[in-house]
């Protein structure tokens, strides 16, 4: 389901030679570098910090806070899918070339709550697929 980011890596992702997807963040890349490259490529990027998150409720709470989801976010899997397939809450003035969701602490979350992590990963993958053919794709890096 989730694989490594293919060559040429982040640059390829941001400039369209690597298709949008749900990828593992290369261990040599840092969140700061990813965010900097995303900004340079005119991608909107947000970080989902999963440190200490060990279950579905905490994951959804963290999504609501870190991603600044709209008030209508119902803190359930369906509402997560809705937010990720309607990015109006994330759009700002002007057009972005793409959207990037970077997670930090994914491995620990997956170890603590494997079933919840699989469900979240499926929803992330579906959202990426939803935006794949649009002008502004969505990509996810699991770090």
UniProtKB/TrEMBL annotation:
Q: Which family does it belong to?
A: Belongs to the barstar family.
Organism domain of life = Bacteria
Q: Which InterPro entries match?
A: Barstar, Barstar-like_sf
Q: Where is the Barstar (barnase inhibitor) domain?
A: 45-142
Could you identify this protein by its name? Barstar (barnase inhibitor) domain-containing protein
């Amino acid at each position: 389901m989730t694989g490594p980011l293919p060559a040429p890596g982040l640059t390829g992702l941001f400039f369209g030679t690597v298709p949008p997807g749900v990828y593992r963040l290369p261990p040599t890349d840092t969140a700061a570098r990813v965010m900097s490259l995303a900004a340079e490529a005119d991608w909107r990027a947000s970080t989902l910090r999963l440190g200490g998150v060990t279950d579905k409720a905490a994951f959804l709470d963290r999504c609501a806070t870190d991603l600044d989801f709209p008030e209508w976010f119902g803190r359930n899997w369906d509402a997560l899918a809705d937010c990720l397939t309607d990015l109006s809450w994330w759009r700002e003035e002007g057009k972005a070339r793409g959207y990037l969701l970077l997670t930090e602490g994914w491995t620990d979350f997956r170890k603590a709550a494997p079933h919840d992590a699989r469900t979240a990963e499926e929803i992330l993958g579906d959202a990426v697929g939803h935006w794949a053919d649009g002008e502004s794709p969505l990509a996810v890096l699991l770090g």
